[in-house]
């Protein structure tokens, strides 16, 4: 099995001639000369965490493990125990993952689970001659109910291949940092890499400014039930086609008064660049060998007992080998080290779920091809004052998915358009010791995608826009609003690849000129207060490629992360090229231009 897999990999990497329509693709850049003599640090630019301004009450290394030839073996698993020196409750808990690798190896997907509930979906960086390292920090306070337990395993899956060609072993250390609201433990000055030394006031402002992005998970849930696979190959379900609809039966406590599902998704294989796939008619007409087809529309959906309860067009995360690996050094693509997850408020469905019976929670990918890794965590809040609450689902407005497609091509040139719009609305009431509360959950999104080819297919332009809006409103039986949370997301993407003949008169050598600009902007509303995050990346460059190895090239990436709420503003702008940050500016005052 694994020999066959290696053989396949060999074929894929070294013998398939490149047809223009198969770009974007993933590449390895191991043959490049070293630019620096020290190991390279990679990073993903993101918001600071509120806890970055505090000193942890305790820090516990959970595991240290080397992922060598882990393909086809079960994931790494270790027993987890909460810290005895700083027991719950915690104001914050942070997962800190550090990775080191030397030797050749390219982007791998990885997941970290606690008791089968996913805490982090991440991927790895591309190699350099002198080795690489990076760290990922994620606030995991929302998983507090699991983090307090003594009976769970912490599991990490990172499928890696080590052989004569790929020699890189990933050395991973995972540490949890626990924070208590205990001011006495906090020295009056805290050093922060972005801000230097912080005084008490600045620190308090920092914590306040970055708090409140927890959305639906504040306060954190009483129980978290994984909706995941058995775990012998990682807890994710592997979805290979539209026909795959994995599901899991779950019985939920009869005193649950609130339920939120958190979906983790990543896309690989022929769907790694799903937003750039042409329709099958284009591939067939031109006798292309690529299997990256099925058009450029994908939607991940969630069902309960076979009925639709939510869906999302996921953010197009580009991994470190994607499109042009020179773009993603040392700053990786948005979400590559900490993939976004997607939230669905299922409270309106409690009327169907509180009967004490098992219900099946399932997933699928509309028009998906191999392969997608999907699983979810079901967060539940229970009424401690009663053993049973009453609930009813009153409105179930199935999404009206409107989808329009336009296809216009002649041989290798032409363009393909998809426009999709989905709106869903669910309403239900729950009567618990908190009163009779009605929850309205609405989820809408719009996707526009155009893939076009010119110059005999050698020039490819992808433009995609996704806007989604989800809103939760809770009101009491006097029709007074008691809670209101909304998240608006916008994810524009423009991608250009232009394939040109290589300079070397060598077979399979070609030049790729590439441009990618994408963004993840989010606007959170909680009651009357808004927080806006705008994360934008703009990369351009070229590379000379032999099969899938980068021989030479140059690239430049600009990224800015801007954040604003009532407590202040933050802006970090970087310019990266040749594996270095050429410029890195952080401003924490509110500028007029922002
Ligand atoms: C935890 O992992 C060990 C092996 O590492 C296994 O024997 C044990 O059954 C696991 N426990 C749970 C609760 O999954
Ligand atoms: C594709 O293959 C068929 C059958 O071999 C052939 O008739 C057709 O001309 C080919 N099309 C192109 C665009 O090469
Ligand atoms: C809860 O409120 C809803 C809407 O106001 C109402 O229709 C329902 O009968 C109430 N349920 C109970 C048990 O009072
Ligand atoms: C990439 O973007 C730059 C700047 O917008 C532009 O000059 C260049 O032509 C683009 N490259 C391609 C292949 O379109
Ligand atoms: C950082 O600030 C300097 C000086 O104001 C400016 O020249 C540079 O363009 C800025 N860099 C970025 C990436 O915005």
Short structural summary:
With 594 residues, this protein is mostly beta strands.
Task: Describe the overall structure.
The chain has 594 residues and is mostly beta strands. The protein has one domain. Helix content is 6%, strand content 51%. The protein is built from 5 helices and 32 strands. The protein has helices at 2-14, 144-147, 200-210, 280-285, 350-353; strands spanning 40-42, 58-67, 76-80, 92-102, 109-114, 117-123, 132-139, 152-158, 169-179, 190-192, 196-198, 223-227, 237-241, 247-250, 256-267, 299-304, 307-312, 341-345, 359-366, 369-382, 390-397, 402-410, 413-432, 435-454, 459-475, 481-490, 493-501, 509-526, 529-546, 549-565, 568-577, 580-587. The strands form 6 sheets. Strands 21, 22, 23, 24, 25, 26, 27, 28, 29, 30, 31 and 32 form a 12-stranded antiparallel sheet that branches. It is globular and about 75 Å long. The N and C termini lie far apart (55 Å). Mean pLDDT is 90; it is low at 1-18 and 183-189. The structure holds 2-acetamido-2-deoxy-beta-D-glucopyranose (5 copies). The site of one 2-acetamido-2-deoxy-beta-D-glucopyranose has 4 residues, from strand 3.
Give a list of the ligands: 2-acetamido-2-deoxy-beta-D-glucopyranose
Intertermini distance: 55 Å
Based on secondary structure, the structural category is mainly beta
What is the percent of helical residues? under 10%
Helix segment tally:
5
- The number of E-state strands comes to 32
Shape: globular
Proportion of beta-strand residues: over 45%
Q: Biggest sheet, in brief?
A: 12 strands, antiparallel
């Amino acid at each position: 099995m694994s020999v066959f897999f290696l053989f396949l990999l060999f074929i894929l990497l070294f013998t398939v001639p490149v047809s223009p329509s198969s770009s974007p693709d993933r590449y390895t850049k191991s043959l490049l000369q070293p630019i620096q003599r020290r190991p390279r640090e990679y990073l993903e630019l993101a918001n600071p965490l509120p806890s970055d301004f505090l000193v942890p009450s305790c820090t516990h290394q959970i595991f240290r493990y080397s992922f060598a030839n882990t393909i086809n073996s079960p994931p790494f698993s270790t027993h987890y125990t909460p810290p005895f020196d700083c027991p719950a409750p915690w104001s914050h808990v942070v997962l800190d993952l550090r990775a080191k690798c030397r030797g050749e190896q390219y982007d791998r997907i990885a997941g970290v689970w606690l008791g089968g509930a996913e805490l982090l979906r991440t991927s790895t960086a591309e190699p350099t001659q002198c080795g690489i390292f990076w760290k990922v920090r994620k606030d995991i306070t929302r998983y507090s109910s699991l983090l307090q337990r003594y009976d769970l395993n912490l599991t990490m899956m990172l499928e890696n291949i080590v052989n004569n060609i790929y020699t890189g072993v990933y050395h991973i250390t995972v540490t949890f940092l626990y924070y208590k609201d205990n001011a006495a433990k906090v020295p009056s000055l805290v050093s922060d890499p972005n801000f230097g030394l912080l005084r008490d006031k600045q620190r308090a402002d920092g914590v306040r400014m970055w708090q409140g992005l927890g959305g639906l998970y504040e306060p954190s849930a009483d129980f978290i039930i994984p909706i995941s696979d058995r775990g012998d190959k990682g807890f994710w379900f592997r979805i290979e086609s539209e026909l795959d609809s994995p599901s899991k039966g779950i019985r939920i406590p009869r005193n649950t008064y609130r339920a939120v599902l958190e979906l983790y998704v990543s896309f690989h294989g022929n769907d790694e660049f799903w937003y750039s796939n042409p329709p099958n008619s284009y591939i067939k007409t031109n006798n292309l060998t690529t299997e990256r087809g099925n058009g450029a529309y994908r939607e991940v959906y969630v069902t309960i007992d076979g009925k639709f309860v939510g869906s999302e067009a996921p953010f197009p995360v580009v991994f470190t080998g994607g499109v042009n690996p020179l773009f993603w050094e040392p700053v990786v693509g948005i979400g590559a080290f900490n993939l976004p997850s997607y939230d669905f408020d299922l409270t309106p469905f409690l009327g169907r779920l509180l009967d004490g019976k098992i219900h099946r929670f399932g997933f699928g990918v509309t028009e998906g091809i191999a392969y997608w890794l999907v699983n979810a965590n079901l967060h539940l809040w229970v009424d401690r004052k009663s053993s049973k609450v009453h609930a009813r689902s009153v409105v179930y407005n199935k999404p009206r998915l409107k989808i329009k497609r336009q296809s216009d091509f002649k041989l290798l040139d032409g363009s393909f358009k998809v426009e999709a719009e989905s709106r869903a609305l669910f309403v239900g009431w729950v009567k618990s010791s908190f009163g009779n509360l009605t929850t309205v959950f609405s989820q809408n999104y719009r996707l526009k995608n155009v893939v076009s080819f010119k110059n005999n297919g050698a020039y490819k332009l992808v433009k995609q826009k996704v806007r989604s809006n989800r809103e939760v409103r809770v009101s009491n039986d006097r029709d007074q609003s008691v809670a209101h949370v909304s998240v608006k997301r916008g994810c524009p993407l423009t991608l250009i690849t232009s394939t040109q003949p290589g300079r070397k008169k060598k077979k399979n050598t070609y030049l790729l000129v590439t441009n990618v600009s994408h963004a993840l902007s989010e606007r959170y509303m909680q009651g009357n207060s808004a927080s806006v995050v705008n994360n934008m990346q703009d990369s351009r460059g070229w590379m000379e490629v032999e099969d899938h190895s980068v021989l030479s090239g140059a690239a430049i990436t600009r990224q800015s992360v801007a954040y604003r709420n009532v407590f202040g503003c933050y802006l970090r702008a970087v310019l990266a090229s040749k594996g270095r940050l050429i410029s890195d500016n952080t401003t924490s005052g509110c500028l007029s231009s922002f």
